[in-house]
Every structure is written in C-alpha cells, then in structure tokens.
Amino acid sequence: MNTNGNIYQQYAYSYPHKQAYRELPPMTLAEVWQQQPIHNLFAYLHLPFCEMRCGFCNLFTISNPKTGVQEYLQALQTEAQTYRDVFPDLQFEAYAIGGGTPTFLDVDDFEQLLSIFKQDLGVDTHGKYGSIEASPKSITPEKIALIETYGIDRVSIGVQSWLEAETKSLGRPQTPELAHEAIQQLVLSDIPEINIDLIYGITGQTQQSWQYSLEKTIDFQPVEIFLYPLYTRPLTGLEKMNHTQADHRLALYRFGRDFLLSQGYEQVSMRCFRKANTPYPATTYKSAIDNMVGIGAGARSYTQALHYSTHYAVNRKAIKAIIKNYYLKNTADFNQVTYGIYLNKEEQCRRFIIKSLIDGGRLDTELFELHFKTKITDFPLINDLFEQGWLVQNDSIIQLTAAGMEMEDFIGPALFSSQINLLMQEYELS
Ligand SMILES: C[S@@+](CC[C@H](N)C(=O)[O-])C[C@H]1O[C@@H](n2cnc3c(N)ncnc32)[C@H](O)[C@@H]1O
Ligand code: SF4
Fold first, then answer.
1. Of 10, 146, 321, 429, which is most buried by a Cβ count within 10 Å?
2. CATH code of the region 345-421
3. CA of 251 to the centre of ligand 2 (A)
4. Contact 364, 352 (CB under 8 A)
C-alpha cells in the first residue's frame, strides 16, 4: 500500500460520495422502503443557508439568500409530512440538524424549522440523542433558548482558529471576540454537549499559533473538539486564491492530538476528541447498518441497498437552482426518488467497514459477519491494513492503531471500490 507521500486524500465520512450518485428511474417512497426497517432510523434535516461562504467550504449551501427562505421552510414541511403520510410508523432513534448553518435563520424561522422536525417529521428531540450545527455569528440567546426548549443534546460550532489573521486567510471573516461571546453563551446554557471545530494546516499557521488555538478552546472545556486538516477543494474561494505553502498538516495533527490527550481528552477518531469519562448517551442506532431519512435540499437518505438525495453541486449557481427546484416541489414530487445509487452486497460491506473505522474508530466483526454472512477477512484490504500496522484486533473488535488513525484520510479512500472511484472521476470531469 503506497501513499506516494500524500495521506490527505479525502474525509470519507460517508460512502459512496454524492459524486457517485446518478439519475434513477423514478420510484415511490413506498417502493424504495419496501421491506426496509423503519423503526431504528436516523433523522437528518439540511438547511443549505449560511451568513457567509467560507473560503475552504464546499458543503451544499449558499450564503445570504435574498429570497426563498420561507418557501424553503414550507417545502421542508411538505416533505416531512409526505414521509409521515406514507409511513405513519416511522421511528427515529437519533438525529442531526445540519447544513449550512441552521442558526442562520431568524428566531421565528428557526422555531418553525425545529417544529417541522418535531411535529411534522415526528422526531422526539427530547427523548433521543441529537445534534445541531451553529456558527458564532448566527447563534443568539433566543436561539439557544429554543435549542434548550427542544431538548437538543449537542451544539457543534465552527471556530476554526482563534487568530483573526488565520480565519481571514481561510476566507472566513470572524473575530475571536465574536467566537468567545458565542461559546461563552453556549457553555453557560443547559445544553449538555458543546463541540468546537478547529482547522490545522492554515497558511501562516505555526505550531505556536496552533497551540494558542487549542489552549483557547480547552479553556471552555467543551465535551468534544473536532480537529480538521485543511483541504483546498475545487471551486472553493481558497482554491481560487491559489494559496500554496509547505504541507505541515501531519506535524500539526500530531501536536494537536498529543496536546488534547495530555489535557484529559480521549481520541475517538482522527478528527474527534472527547472529554474523558463522558460516554455517548445510549442509542440503538448503528450508523454502519441502520437506515436514515434526510429531508431538505442536499440531504441524503439511506436504505441498505439504495442511497438517494436531491441533485448534487458545489458552485453557487447550480446549488441555487437545486434549492429553487426543491421549494417548487409538491407532495407527489416528494414521494418520488429519482437520484441516487444502488449498493450491491460488496458495496454495502465496504460501507460498513469505512463507516466503522473512519466515523467511530471501531469495527464490530461479529455484527459484520452476522449482518452480511461473510467473513471480514474475505476483504483482502483488511489484511493489508493489518500488515501496515494500522489495525489491531481485540476479541471481535478491530480498531485503528495510533499510526492508523493519522492515516484515516488515506485508509478511507483506499477502501473505495474501483467502480465508485470511476463514477466520482466522471463527475469531476463533467
Ligand atoms: C457544517 S461546518 C460547521 C458549522 C457552521 N456552519 C460553521 O461554519 O460554524 C462543518 C465543519 O467542517 C470543517 N470543514 C469544512 N470544510 C473544510 C475544509 N475544506 N477543510 C477543513 N475543514 C473543513 C470546518 O471545521 C467546519 O466547521
Ligand atoms: S463552514 Fe459553515 S458557515 Fe462556512 S460556508 Fe461552510 S457551512 Fe457555511
């Protein structure tokens, strides 16, 4: 297995990537979900709006839409009701509200969004474990109060860096004072878990400035901290600025990891660090095998054999068109699936392995073998990963070693099938 010196290939948090999705012959929701369990689901809601378009970000979102927010919320409600009408027994065990930036909405619209999720889709936001994304600029005491009222367990907020020169170089105008005030409010609230995102590998960032951002972050003692290596992706502001500098991500990763481990945090995955002795609230939902219902433009939904979503794009014009198309949809349109990808058994096995290793750091071989009636060692790549010293097995659990964890963005893509790689390449060339 040769890295050719580039271990930063891609963050494989899902598989297959939406770049591999294609047009499908139309099917109704009932046809898609036939014989699929609908009682142990994850619910996801996507709000594709932000107050700014950060230079590094290629997520499915647009900044400051002048019109269309109310239309979007109404369409979201229709989509949620369509699911409920077709499947009155849908049951969600965990959830996330993401984007974009859900807190971009003004207070009334934000309340409407939460109500659609709870009342129309039927997510028990109090009883089940769930998370919402926020940005320092858009979070306010009123929105925090609503998050508390709805019993949402976790808020994830992007700081990226505590130095203004660095957020500026990322193409994200944000002052440290603004981030400080936002996080202070969150820490003092009744929300049980706060997560703070930081980025390393920024132009001009040094070990010293990285240490400063890490120290400022742990001053707040958030339950979780995510450390993201910077990626400069096609069609983003950063790519257009054409920044080049020596790649110091691995050195900064190791420094950040060792620092957080020395400060009472445990490492869950390459990016995720969690305060010691704060286990995740119990949920029966298992992301490697269980299904997901996603609502909103850009959201995906997963059954075992079919993943589907609205169309995918990165540039503003195309995203705007997809959002507009979304809010013109009626019940009959929401009942039709037309874009996605089928997963044969081999792809389902690959997905299980990728989700288990990259997302949560542990692969349950008993669950794998029970679910797929195949031995994990039938995948030669797993044996290669053991030979590299990147995996270790304790009883039935396979985990990444420390050496493996820092290679996650190489290991994930190495597990993609050639067919999925081909579809993704075709998309990039189109
Ligand atoms: C949905 S955003 C976070 C929530 C919110 N919209 C905000 O920006 O504060 C998820 C996180 O992914 C990370 N991220 C996104 N694109 C990235 C990139 N190209 N390189 C590194 N990290 C990235 C950032 O840390 C970002 O906070
Ligand atoms: S990083 Fe967050 S605020 Fe910035 S464009 Fe991406 S989703 Fe929006």
1. 146
2. 1.10.10.920
3. 26
4. no
Q: Which of 63, 410, 53, 99 is nearest to 238 (CA)?
A: 53
Query: Which residue numbers in the chain have pLDDT < 50?
Result: none
Of the candidates 214, 198, 229, which has an alpha carbon nearest to the alpha carbon of residue 260?
214
CA of 56 to the centre of ligand 2 (A): 8
pLDDT of residue 243: 65
Instruction: Take residue 410 and report the two structure tokens written for it.
Output: 């190489």
- DSSP one-letter string for 16-42: S-GGG-EEEEEEEHHHHTTT---SSEE
Q: Using the structure block, give the residue that is written with the tokens 């129309």.
A: 120
Please name the residue whose Cα sits nearest to atom 3 of ligand 2: 50
Considering only CA atoms, which of 10, 287, 257 is closest in space to residue 131?
Answer: 287
Residue located nearest, by CA, to atom 25 of ligand 1? 197
232 C-alpha to ligand 1 centroid (Å): 12
Between helix 207-218 and helix 249-262 the angle, nearest 10°, is: 30
Q: Could you tell me if the CB of 135 is within 6 A of ligand 1?
A: yes
Domain locations along the chain = 18-275, 345-421
Nearest CA to ligand 1 atom 6: 101
Could you give the CA distance from residue 286 to residue 280 in angstroms, rounded to a whole number? 13
| Dihedral pair phi/psi, residue 235, rounded to 5° | 70, 10
**pTM of the prediction?**
0.96
Superfamily of the domain at 18-275: tm_1862 like domain (3.80.30.20)
Query: What's the rounded Cα separation, in Å, for the pair 113 and 80?
Result: 11
Closest CA to 26 of 334, 325, 427: 334
In ligand 1, the atom with minimum distance to the C-alpha of 101 is 6
Q: Can you give the pLDDT at residue 254? A: 98
Nearest CA to ligand 2 atom 2: 100
Ligand closest to the CA atom of residue 225? 1
For ligand 1, atom 14: residue with the closest CA: 57
Question: Going by C-beta distance under 8 Å and a sequence separation of 6 or more, which residues neighbour residue 233?
Answer: 56, 58, 239, 314
